[in-house]
């Protein structure tokens, strides 16, 4: 495994370059930015928006936190069950139906940017948006890879178990076994298009197999 140190800005530039290479003017480009909250996937995805727009792409950033299942489903086995978090909090079917499939081959481009408000525990009632061909979709969040969700490019932010535990707020420490299970069972670092180690967000490193 080869590790190449970059700056945070260099990581953004690397992702922009890779997205630009595969972006099709007559279709949509769906990009996953995957990682535990402590790794900052939402922050990285947000940093990609303006540079992509500067290249002439319309961009939509969708967060998995807006595609959770209702509270009755998420908390069926309690509020802090890591297996339930791993297997059932994220509404993958909703994300596929409302966002990913409409931006796939033969899609309409008509997407729903948010689906569920987990605080109020009700639908967000967001309006649909129509993205033109050439647009880029950024989906950020955790536990995104390995279940067959369709992406043209997948980036995975990885942290060592010690760093992940250190940077995860105490009230969310119960989720750590879910990320350990994800790393062991899915191993996204073995197939993601770009893997970045972010134990220290100020000094990321891009990992690749020689």
TrEMBL record:
SUPFAM superfamilies with a match to the protein in the record: P-loop containing nucleoside triphosphate hydrolases
InterPro entries: P-loop_NTPase
UniProt protein name: Uridine kinase
């Amino acid at each position: 495994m080869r590790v190449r140190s970059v700056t945070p800005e260099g990581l953004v530039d690397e992702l922009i370059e890779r997205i630009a290479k595969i972006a099709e003017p007559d279709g949509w480009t769906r990009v996953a930015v995957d990682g535990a909250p402590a790794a900052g996937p939402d922050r990285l995805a947000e940093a990609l928006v303006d540079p992509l727009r500067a290249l002439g792409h319309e961009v939509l950033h969708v967060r998995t936190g807006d595609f959770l299942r209702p509270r009755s489903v998420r908390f069926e086995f309690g509020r802090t069950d890591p297996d339930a978090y791993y297997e059932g909090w994220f509404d993958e079917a909703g994300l596929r139906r409302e966002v990913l499939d409409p931006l796939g081959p033969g899609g309409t481009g008509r997407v729903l940017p948010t689906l569920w408000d987990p605080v109020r525990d009700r639908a967000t009632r967001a309006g649909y948006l129509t993205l033109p061909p050439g647009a880029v979709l950024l989906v950020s969040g955790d536990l995104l890879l390995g279940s067959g969700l369709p992406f043209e490019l997948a980036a995975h932010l990885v942290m060592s178990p010690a760093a992940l535990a250190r940077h995860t707020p105490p009230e969310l420490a119960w989720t750590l076994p879910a990320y350990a299970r994800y790393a062991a069972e899915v191993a996204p670092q073995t197939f993601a298009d770009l893997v970045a180690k972010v134990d220290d967000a100020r000094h990321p490193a891009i990992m690749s197999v020689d």
